[in-house]
Amino acid sequence: MGRLTKAHGLKGAIKIELFTDDPARRFVPGAVFTLQVPTSSPWHGKTLELIELKWYNSHPVAFFKDIGDRTTAESVIKAILWVDQDLTEESDEDDAWFDHHLVGLRVLRDGVQVGTVVRVDHLPAQDLIAVKVPTSDDEVLVPFVKAIVTAVDVKAGTLTVDPPLGLFEELPDEPEDRTEDAETASPE
User: Fold this and answer.
1) What is the DSSP letter of 127?
2) Has domain 99-161 been given CATH number 2.30.30.240?
3) Lowest-confidence segment of 63-72, 76-85, 143-152 by average pLDDT
4) What would the pLDDT profile of 50-73 be if each residue is shown by its tens digit?
5) How much is the pTM?
């Protein structure tokens, strides 16, 4: 859901980098977050309960139960906040899916299965769908953009792709020296 970035003030408030597009729904009083921290951290295996989320100069700042001073807040900085996902939860948007909805879908190209989605990689530029190809141990990384992923049908268990040539197959080698071919083909 987010990452704790910096202590704010003296009363234990912490600035947050949000990873969710719906903070009003996720960061409500009483929400409990699991912490991702190194095993050597005193916070390892613990959770935080949100008291309040406020906005200061367009930055989200959280107040958590049992963090009442700056020193305690600084001890948990850089922790990643996780929540348990309800696997039955549906997205409110037509063209939005949770990763667990996509993993396991059969990937179809021209009606023929070319692989299975094994994971979704979220990168800064775009999301990628990792497709396990049944004919090898390789994975193909497919940009998750509408021009390539043309349809997702979770109920049917399919994801339809229209990939550029070469994404799922090797292209034949081009002749190495085209200038010789052009010289022999032209009349002198």
Assistant:
1) E
2) yes
3) 76-85
4) 899 889 888 889 899 988 899 998
5) 0.50
3-state secondary structure of 93: coil
Residue entry with tokens 């704790």: 4
Angle at 8 between CA 84 and CA 70, to 5 degrees: 90
- CATH says 2-82 is which class? mainly beta
**Residue 38's beta-bridge partner residues?**
none
**Residue labelled with tokens 């309960």:** 49
Element containing residue 72 per DSSP (H, E): helix 70-75
**127 Rama sector, left if φ>0, alpha if ψ -120 to 50, beta otherwise:** beta
Count of beta carbons in the 10 Å neighbourhood of residue 46? 14
pLDDT digits (tens, 9 = 90+) for 115-137: 999 998 887 788 899 999 988 88
In 3D, which of 146, 143, 139 has the Cα closest to residue 116?
139
Residues 6+ apart with CB under 8 A from 175: 181
SS3 152: strand
Q: How far apart are CA 43 and CA 40, in angstroms?
A: 8
Position 153 pLDDT exceeds 90: yes
Domain map (residue ranges) of the chain: 2-82, 99-161
